[in-house]
Amino acid sequence: MNLSEVNWDPNVAGSWPLPIKIATIFLVSLLVIGAGYYYITIDQLNELEQLEIKEKKLKSSFEKKQKKAINLPDYRAQFKQIEASLGEMIKQMPTKAEVANLLIDISQTGLASGLEFRLFKPSAAVRKDFYSELPISIQVIGQYEELGLFVSGLASLPRIVTVHNVEIYPDKNKALNMTATIKTYNEEVGAVKKKKKRRGRK
Questions:
Q1: What pLDDT digit, counting tens, does each position of 44-56 carry?
Q2: Which DSSP symbol is given to 7?
Q3: Which of 63, 123, 154, 184 is the most buried (most CB within 10 A)?
Q4: Phi, psi at residue 131, to the nearest 5°?
Q5: C-alpha span between 119 and 139 (Å, rounded)
Q6: Among the residues of 37-180, which ranges form H helices?
Q7: What residue spans define the domains of the chain?
Q8: What's CA 122's distance to the chain center, in Å?
Q9: Confidence at residue 179, expressed as pLDDT on a 0 to 100 scale
């Protein structure tokens, strides 16, 4: 077959030899398929990929929520325990009327342990969420055992007392200096009542 003898006018394509017709149909089919893939299928594949990613995220979110739902009774039980513990802690907080007596108890605990106070300075209350911190800066001098007795005595007081920023260094007279911040806590009654009201509305 001599290709130079073929009339390549598309209007007379019906008269082309059979092999050229088959090759032409094949090429046109490839072009149509390629164009369809480029203009339609690629966008659909991208959309499918995005949907698959979204599906995975939704499944992950559902599994997390399902686990929370399954553990909801345990969470509620834990919440009740936390509320009970919080209630006990609040009972151990001194009222404003009891703060003065607590300060005396702290200083008496130090003296009873054999310590000498160089500094005992209560600072202004620091407001928190439902309570106030009452910091007291102290500096005491004594032996190691006496310092231990003092800290142990603070822990055994009926009200919550914590010790922070402890620094211990030797004195010239072979005693130990201890500086620290002692904190006790005062219940903010109004804040607690507001919280209970909000919870009741929910």
A1: 777 778 888 888 8
A2: -
A3: 184
A4: -155, 170
A5: 5
A6: 42-70, 72-91, 96-112, 144-155
A7: 16-70, 93-192
A8: 33
A9: 94
Both tokens of residue 62? 């559902």
Instruction: Dig out the tokens for 72 from the structure.
Output: 């909801």
Local confidence band at 61 (pLDDT 50, 70, 90 cut-offs) = confident
* Topology classification of domain 93-192: Alpha-Beta Plaits (3.30.70)
**Could you give the angle at the alpha carbon of 159 between the alpha carbons of 142 and 168, nearest 5°?**
25
73 vs 71: CA distance, rounded Å: 6
Q: What does the pLDDT read at residue 9?
A: 64
Instruction: List, for residues 142-174, the tens digit of each pLDDT value.
Output: 999 999 999 999 988 888 888 999 999 998 778
Tokens of 145: 């055992």
User: Which residues sit opposite 119 in a β-bridge?
Assistant: 139
Helix (H) or strand (E) holding 94: none
